[in-house]
## 1
Amino acid sequence: MPDESAVRFAVLGPVRIWRGERELDLGGPQERALLALLLLRAGQPVPVAEIVDALWGPHPPRTALNVVRRHVGSLRRLLEPGLPARASGRRLLRGAGGYRLATDGDALDLVRFRGLRDQARRAAAEGSPARAVDLLAEALSLWNGPVASGISPDVRDRLAVDGPQREHLAAVREAADAALGAGVPGRVLPQLREAVAAHPLDEPLLARLVLALAATGRRAEALSTYRTACTRLADELGIDPGPELRDALHEATGPGADTPPRESPGPRTAVPAQLPHDLPTFTGRHAELEEVLGPLAGGAEQDGTVLISALGGMAGVGKTALAVHWAHRVADRYPDGQLYADLRGFAPTGSITDPGEALRGFLDALGVPPERIPQGLDAQAALYRSVLSGRRVLVLLDNARDAEQVRPLLPGAPGCLTVVTSRDELTGLVAVHGARSLTLSPFDTGQARAFLAGRLGTARIAAEPAAVDEIITRCAGLPLALACVAARAALRPHFPLAAVAAELREAHGSLDAFTRPDTSADVATVFSWSAHAVSAEAARLFRLLALHPGPDASPAAAAALAGLPLRQVRPLLAELCGVHLVNEPAPGRHAFHDLLRAHATELLQTHHGEDERQEAVDRLFAHYLHRAHAAGAVLDPSGDLPPLPEGTHTEPFADDSQALAWLGAEYGALPAVIQEAAASGRDRLACQLAWSLEPYFERRGHWHDGLAAQRTALDAALRLADPALEARARRGLGRAAGRLGLHDEARAHLDRALELFTGLGDLVGRAGTHRSLGWTSEQQGDLAGALRHNRLALDLFRSAGHRPAQASVLNSVGWYHVLLGEHRQALTHCFEALTLLQDLGDRYGQAATWDSIAYAYHHLGRHPHVLLGYRNALTLYRGLGVPYPEADTLTRIGETHLATGDRDSARAAWEQALTLLTALGHPDADRVRARLDGRDERVGAV
């Protein structure tokens, strides 16, 4: 007797439910669609936002959430009669941001089908093809038509029925293989004919039908089937049959060789050269140089840590200048590169460099791909030590605050030299790590005289010895102060040094924190005197520059702070550089010494009120937001950056290279601006800047920084209680978390973002979130889910009329079809994407799409088409000036030539690729070199 209380479900055909032997009435079309969606997920939760997307598409009614709840209640009462109105029951459960339908065992035909298919695979692997045929025949008998048939086509398309349909086709192919192996090909002929009728361009199915027909004695029909397929492939796709179908005609039993998956490039064996420029006027410190260079004399290899500290915490004593000069002297002994980081341990703004930030910068410079950089300081430090193991690298850590900041940045194995500068003695490094300590004192009188003579000339120094002695005394022997005085005096060569000394005597400052306790000299007087020596406009700019949060500033940022046109600011910066109040460490970048920044900060508090200071900060932050927004729009034309307020105008960037150059130059300041904006109550700006930087984080792989920025943005959005801001922040946070492998956190944020965007009626926001969910699904091994989300994104972008995003998603849809082995569908979507991208003028997108097209053709064995696709991509990459994709494409062109037997053309392509990769210092050069030498075993498999 059947159990009258048992509930069975069907979705492989019409959507149906039985209780015992009685079929239940499912209600209206939307209840059926909701049930189908829940059944297709087979016990997995479906977020509410996805339910809304499936039932209504891009334009749900405002009452959509209430309608979903009403349908859920109806289904619950249908499944569990007598259930109270607000009870959740035990079958249709709420949780994880959505609903889950719990089914018992094989009560769902889809689950039963998958179980039988798994058993058949095991039977085939165990050498029992007859048993596999029986199991697959039973599995295929569960199908009663297309998945979820009877539901309106537009809704059915949104239910993502493609996944189970692909499983059905795979089962038919598996059944054919098993039947041919068991010698019973006739058992699968009906299913093969039906499948080929529905998919007349599926060559694997056609090949099996030809083999089955031939094996059952129907050779004439097999030949007719082959000829019909040839005609259809030529007429509809313009191609010839692939090797699998050709082999089937000749009754071959094995499929043609397949292309191995493309490998992502490994870590670059980069040779970083990050040392700052050496000072051409470096003078003195002969004894100190002898002390640190002595152990290296005669070729001795003395590696480890050298600590250059200052007497009594003194700033401006020349630690950095000595360290950089020495590092350049010994750099040739460390052929694997030089790393440099300004740790900003005593920055007056308090923006101390986090060791994790410095580590990530070093790992990037050493060629570690961003996706390989783990979460957490300890894990990053361990990877850093591993990368440096066996290499000879010089590491210069400038301006360290304490030993704790330095320890994660120390190499772990012999062969590397680490130089640390600090105002602190860092006794922990000496005691625990065996650092050799060198303490710098201010110049004595002789050293100071030589220093001034090198800048002002020996004759001028000798002519006024008393004035020189007074200058040296008032500068306390500090090289920084002496440089300021020398710069001022050099600009006035006929001005007596006695007058300079008199001006210093009359000047006064208040930089008490930097005054040496053992002398009456106040170094601030030197800086105050220098500041009085420039124009009022330059002095004002000097003070306002103290508000800049980054390590250096561009002329445009300085102009924003000052509220002046750029053409007026450039000469003011030159004036400040001329008296050494500001330096220019790189063209167009202006920086303070910490001592001078502290002095400027004191003057700022004295000369400018709170309102004036905040207005300057507002101008600076607005400048950064507007430029970052313009750069983000260029880097990701398919993105959905929110518009800036009306009346905002900023000059657009001409192309990617300009945008990337600006972002790279300003990157030291931009994350700090986000943090400072949020900390100072500028929450909306913090959110907008974080979103504007998303394309850069993605392009450069700065995902840890992206994660931090998006967390700051989310906190700011929650403070503002703005659901639109929260949705964007959660989506950005989900993307960054996913890139770092935090997939559970990523999915939680993305699901919540999808709910928020749905509630807001934001089509583009929903679409972008589906794209991100698709990528997360791919990373978790769910290619069908990845395709489903990208198809939903495509529908939404089409409804919103967002053509750049449509083009990008079309290529993604095509790519997922390739990964799923559906090469025909892939080509259809990729060619549609290509047409759109050509209309839009997106050359980078066109190149990537041609690459996808060539990859699909490679799997189909269409070598002439493969070469055409890769050559088109190559032409575009060369025009864009991106050498690595060019080299990568040349490598695959060589592989394709080799697959056709043209070894000369293969060698020519690989030689070009090798030239590019060698110039880049990329490890793929070794692989290409191995192919040219005939040592790469993988080449023959192409």
## 2
Amino acid sequence: MSPIPRRSLLKAAAVAGAAAQFSWALGTSDAQAAPGAAADAADPVTLDWLEDGGLGAAPGSTVGVPWPMGAYQEDQTFAITDADGKDVPVQSWPLAHWPDGSLKWTAHAVSSGSGKLTLKAGAPEIPVKKVTVDRSGGTIDVSTGVITARIGKNGSTIIKSVTRGATEIAKNGRLVLIRQPEVEDEDQGTVRTERFDGAISSVTVEQDGPVRAVVRVDGKHRKGDRGWLPFSLRLYFYAGADSFRMVHTITYDGTLEPGKASGDFIRGLGVRFCVPMRDAAYDRHIRIGGESTGLLREAVQGITGLRRDPGAAVQAAQYAGQKLPDPSTWDQRVTTRLQYIPHWGDYTLSQLSADGFTLRKRTKKGYGWIGAGGGKRASGFGYVGGASGGLSFGLRDFWEKFPAQLDIRDAHTDEATVTLWLWSPEAQPMDLRFYHDGMGQDTYAEQLEGLNITYEDYEPKFGTPYGIARTSELLFWANDSTPSADTLADQVNAVRVPPQLAAPPKQLIKAKVFGPGLYSEPDRSTAAKAKIEDHLDFLFTYYKDQVEMRRWYGFWDYGDIMHTYDSARHVWRYDIGGYAWDNSELSPDLWLWYAYLRSGRSDIFRFAEAMTRHTGEVDVYHLGEWAGLGTRHGVQHFADSAKQQRIANTTYRRFYYFLTADERVGDLMHANVDSDETFLVLDPQRKVRTDPYTPDRHALSIGFGTDWSGLVSAWLTEWERKGPKWEKAKARVLSTMEGIAAQPNGFVQGSGLYDLDTGRFAVAGTPVVSVSHLSAVFGLNELCAELIHLVDLPKFKEAYLDYCRYFNATKADQKARYGSDFGSLLLFQGHSRLDAYAAVQTGDATLAQRAWTKFYGSDGYTESSPWKTERLSGPATLVSGSEASWVSTNDTALYGLAAIENLALLGDRMPS
């Protein structure tokens, strides 16, 4: 993208200031909400579970529901009923507002209910057993009416105790970090480790019932004077539940240097609880999840399989986890020899890859381990306790985010210890060093040469993991006795796939959220529509299968997909620069979320959920000088030197947040509100500028495409949410829209000089034509569709529709309109959705025709593409599977979005 000459803009500074003031005055009157809601806007909404089974053993579920503009005001209350018309307790709160102040999104938390539920205006049912929060003492005490958790306000004990009635089920809940200061070189060196414990710096009660309570705990892992690896936990409690949920986030802030063996290598990262053991050894039970709902079901002291039989009923009771009758009633040949039966106190399940776990046990520390089985993919679930109560625990995405591990220690003593390892200490240490030595790329010229061969934009010191984050989800149950096999299976399922309520696609469409008219429910009423639907299904299925075949799993990798395929090697280009991990390039996140919005399919939701968790955490910096920026696609998620707004784009997070009310994703979006400050720190165009440029707080060069779309999405979201900075965010949405509209060539101007203090673009004194094929493919069209619906600013709408009209136009038409053509462009199929949007907005039949012409016959996928896979097996490939060598993620994202939006906007005007 060619920069605007700074000199010509500064010449226009005085004029720009006056124009901005005048424009702002107009904006205060023009920026009004669209007309009020239709008569059916407030109709009841049917909510259903994404998967079968309802709430199951989960503590609760929270869902976001959108409403048409004007349907409900801020003070509206809501009620939920089940299929029988019975009231279901619900807690509701606003998630977002329309510009007129009416509710745009509301969140609704339930802790009971199965089958379909109906949400409507009304007085909410209050649960019989309410969640309560007591802040008055030295701890924060949260009671669900069934269990009570005492949460520490300081120190290293996060959860001091979990009780059920008068029985303490768990205590001393804490975070554990093992640091390895040096990695060995092959078989040389000595492994040393040191342990850090999570130390609390702040505790915040974010919700306090009556159905849902949320407590946030922040801190760092500490040992002595050193504190590092910041953590943020959220603990979720629901009315009447015997369980609670933990959302655990760490942000890496260690020191690692490529080529050096010393540094902050994580050897283990875990969550640990102590579990009081009150029962006799033969009434203490161990349960460890294997494949699917499979379980290891044992007692600390087993009385099955012995040379002497205590009795079939006794054996069956122990296997079932029931309290055994008094030993005096057993066969005395067993009773008199109980002291000779081993007590098995320690168990470990290690999942060191996506394809295998091992399970072992021992009597106690200092004695040999005995193999206890193994398999492919463990559920990440366990239980330790006895007839008088015990703790169930589980780590979501256990094998997907390997290496993971479950430890039970000292179950033969008065106090067992449970550790859920998010990073297994038995794995190789977490090595986040950059992967090569730079290969002599010391200057921008050399780095651009490297870009031209491997597509990697390298720069020394830029391939750093400092500031990236990862979030994990855990569940804990405080059981009053060892659960039955069926209950345990329900708990396993809740860990693996947390139950999620959802509003149907028709409600999302009716509410006009995420861009009115941009998506519609799948329609196979004509052969042409059915074929496109088949293609969309093919692409999603292919990527889902490729995740499995290519093993796109691992703690830092799960949720992402690869960028480009290497047909010669029959692999994705996992080791070639910018062709490896995709990191949201050209918005596959949007493709997946719009695919879900229109279909309501649970498999698409779960795929998009994993991607959102990944791209929002791992591909973006949350600490350090680049906080608020994301990293371009590469061999490692943080490797590329292009640190840009387009990857940190809040647009990609909005869907998951509004559909689930997830607070962690809300944090990520709020953190981006001030990310315009990053343009002072790093110039994204530094390697290709031809004119002198030094970042100036009052004249920062910001592009109207990938830069502005990332910024305005954060501002819009903060405004809608009425976050702490919503008034500033609203002002920046409006002022920058007006600034773009006021440019001589609108969006075609390409970029403008932005004042950080006023939030305004200077108006250029001369027109410039600067158009990039990338500008609109990181969510710009979807954002502008939302903004045009939200804000009545005709000149902005005109400027955007002009951009839409001329991107895919002929060079002659471009030159006639702007005095110069747009140069060599790409991605015409992806931009056909801009044609479609403009056609509907303007009623231009020619644009509608061009949308389908560009969709079917320009670049990207065509009807003559193979639309099938080829089987692969050895020796051509590492594992058997399939390939579609003609598929690339860029083309998939663009085709997917163009197909979805064109069908919705112009499905009735498809060529015959």
## 3
Amino acid sequence: MSTGPSERPAPSGLREVFAARLREALHTGGERRGGVSPTRRAYREAACLLARFDPRELRLPDEKHATGRAVLELVDDCTTLGMQDQAGWALKAEVREEALGGLAGPEAARRLLAANIGQLPAEPGPERFALAQLFGTPLAIDRLTAGELADALQAVLWLSRVPGMTGLPDTGRLQRALERARLLEPLERLVRRPFQGRAAELAELRAYIALPGAAAPPGPPAAPPGGPGLVPAMVVHGPGGMGKSTLLAKFLLDSVHDPAGGIPFAYIDFERPTLSVHEPITLIAEAARQLGIQYPAHRAELDALAEECQQVARSQREGQERVTQLHELAATRAVLGRSYSQQFQSAATDRETGLVRRVGEVLRRAVAEVKSRPDEPDPPFVMAVDTFEEAQYRGSPALGRMVAVYVALQSAYPRLRAVFSGRAPVEHPAKRVESLDIELGELDPQAAVSLLASCGVDDPEVARELAARVGGHPLSLKLAARAATLAGLAGEPTGELIRSLPERRREVFRRVDQLLVQGILYDRILSHIADEDVRRLAHPGLVLRVITPEIIRDVLAGPCGLDVPGPERARELFDELSRLDMVEPAAPDAVRYRGDVRAIMLRLPGGDRTAVMREVERRAVAHYAARDGLEARAEEIYHRLRLDENPRSVEERWLPGVERFLAGAGQEMSPRAAGLLTARLGGGAPDHVAAGADQEDWERIAAQEVEDLLAQGFATAALERIGRRRPWTPCSPLHALYAEALSRVGRRDEARRAVADALVPAGRAGCGERRLELLLLSARLAQEDGDPVHADRALRAAEDVAVGLGQDLEAMGALLARARLTADEGRAEPATGRQLAERLKKLPDDVLSERPVLVRAVASQIYAQAPGALEHAVEVVGLPSDDETLDALGAAMRRATRRQPALLGKVMEILDEAAGPSRPEPGAAPTSIAGILRLARDRGTLDALARRLLAVPDRSGEIVAGVAAAMGVGSGARTTTGAHVRAAPAPEERHARERRDDR
């Protein structure tokens, strides 16, 4: 039998076969009994400096050829790595450590690695670093990439276990170098190709941060450290594909590696899944984490701040969900929702600005410690924020909170300089100064030629002629380079490609020229697809967001004039299409065109292909309409909108949950279609989308913006925004918002008239939910004006409307509104409480669980009248889990145990049980009530704790009131004493309270 390599089983297969045979022969159930034989130990040592190896090729130093015995000897000592056809073995961690410690010394390690030099991978790995170290030629750490540093660190950790090994690099230094390299890795990926042009923009950015030797920054002069002036942020903007992110990366890398001295920085890319543009607290956490890597002496403090930010983020997410739920019901929107929205935004801003100031203060101390002399000015701290577009719209709460974070951080570290990559600066009432901006235009001719050369256009004359036709748009130049390369491979003269491109015209036509050029270049690239059938699919397929063999057969084949008789031919075409460099995997057995390809091609007129592409979209609608699931429904809606169907008929196909599949799709549609998506998905609408949207969609877009402005306290700006497009439809959300805005600017009579004027048309149009919202708003405004008669009349009408709607939760919300408003006037109505208790008791648990915020608000309102309401709510929806909940619960427990010391033992028993049996090591266990409550929350025992607290015999009623207050956090709940539930204290106040608790 041949033993050539081609006939050998895969290593993983060998391992399984031999393991089974060995265990059977040695009658063991696993590991071999007894000590390790000398041969087995020798093979362990031979493999202990290899990250992975082929056991058939493993050699001992005295073996001239591999014997394959390692397969038998190491079968129980290894794990299998990689796929079946490329599998390798690796020693288990404990076996490797034992083998390394058993080596005779560095010379033995050297001989073992040298004997197995053929096992070393071609690319760098820990083995090569170990070999270099053992032979006295270690590599310079400061020149290694992140991957190489990781390998070097692994090699050093291995070699440190070899007896007698000396001269190894410090592992702490290696770890710090690795972390810093990983910090810079995203930036280095963006500038992997040689950076071309942009000298003026780079100079402007350097001047902005006032690096040594730079000119004075543009715009207002920077304030000196500690000065009162606010230096505006810089916004880099320009069309997609123009190189904003690359410019940002080049600027940051140059600044960090500046010979005159590096600078502290934070690079925030909101495309990372751990960061959210809607949660500025995640930006603060990431900045603290990155600064901790740059200033190791302050790492622990900055990491603790980052962890605190993550805890705050979790609380804020719960608060945001509370806002969402209170706005979803008409009955809670006007009385509870908008007031809590403003409270939430204010509290979030306070928490974020407080935390970012603390980050700035740590940075200032860290910088002071490394300065060469005390009077040396602080270096600029550059915060570079990439992909910020999603938050850049008028009224954006994220943008408003980002402004507050920027101002707070600059007050703590005056040399903060922030650079944002996104859209052109937008107006926002929170902005204190106008942003500076750099608009990226086309590359200059020389830079355009250089970019073509770096992309493979070797002939300078061809590069110059292409640049003259294509212009300086980076994406167009890369397309031209690709088209020229394909033409060269096909033996076509490049002159034909150049002549197919239009000559450059005046600036007014430049954008049209770019679209035309990019379309021609893509057509040239598509024309080089070898398979004619795939070539016929390629262009019409661009309208599809995902392509599978089934879609090729059912959707694409017919319009493209192809005969695809069965799944085999569809699979063949799919496999060929998948090999194109303009497509990428989307899912198993599914591909999609790259985003940059579709973004360009869908903007172009289809010419002769328009009819084919529209037929593809019609078939896509039929294909997805016949299928179940949210993703299929989202694709159906997408193609209906692309076909410019009436938004109202498309909306009838909407299902809750399709939103996540349609995010960002509005850029590929007409303004009218994009208007529906923006109205449904939220966020800002560009002016051309707002102008082209149907009236109903425009009203919903404007309503969201006005809600956001009111939540931030900008009522005047909300009024200005609301009046741009009238008359409104009878069911418009803008009627109630207009009255709300008038009320907040002090025009209360006008507000009440606006509500009255809107009620009649809403009733005639059959807008029951809108009428319910307006009636409750009318009651609230009347109650605030001291008009209980009108308030009572409006409340009773609202209850009738809610009952008429046949929606139990809306009816419960209307009753809750009456209970709250009458309680605020000091004339609580027991009958209302009883009705609420009855509804809470009768509604099925699965219905209640869909509205946890409403259920908690009702239970906290009626707990004194309905003793079982709190237990029921804890059982069905549980307590909220944000910090405010823990504060309310902890405060009640402290009050109760102070008034009745006899309760302390029982309360501490409950707390100890909730904290769990496995306590942390001594000194790390929380001892304060707040600390134990946080531990209970993290371990999922907070609800069980609340149930046990409700059973404590507390005569004062403080504990039950505390559970009620915790239950009603964020809903304006009242305790039995009539005091509103307090907002969460600032972190400093919370920490001080915990220290008092400890004492």
